[in-house]
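Long-time lurker. I teach an intro course on protein structure, and each term I like to show students one example going from raw sequence to a predicted 3D structure in token notation. This year I'd like something fresh instead of my usual example. Would anyone be willing to generate the tokens for the chain below so I can use it in lecture? Attribution to the forum is fine with me.
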Amino acid sequence: MRSFLSKDQFARHNGIELLDCSKGTARAKMEIKDYHLNGVGTVHGGAIFALADFVFAAASNSHGTIAVAINASIWYVKAAFEGTLFAEAKEVSLQPKLAIYSIDITNEDSETIASFQGMVYRKRS
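-- Reply from a regular --
Happy to contribute to a lecture. Here you go:
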């Protein structure tokens, strides 16, 4: 899985680092840098979404079947300004063609920054 995810140039460009990945779960972090901030000085929603999307991809592809997103949504709960953000994906439902994942994005104090939910289509080999 690490080899597969190491090809994700966008994640690398944004400083996203995979911490753990196993069947149906994944965890990653992103240290907040100046380039992650928006015009009002908080972490850009797109940066938070990218972190969540990365663990979504890791968890959904962890079974060895190619999985591609068909739906994703995010709720921003609290602004982040500095430090490190963490994202943890958990599999909610796994079917032959579809799977659903829930992702929590937290800060260093374990405060919820955002909540992401996504569905993937699982391709047949």
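Some talking points for your students: The longest strand covers residues 84-94. The chain has one domain: 2-122.
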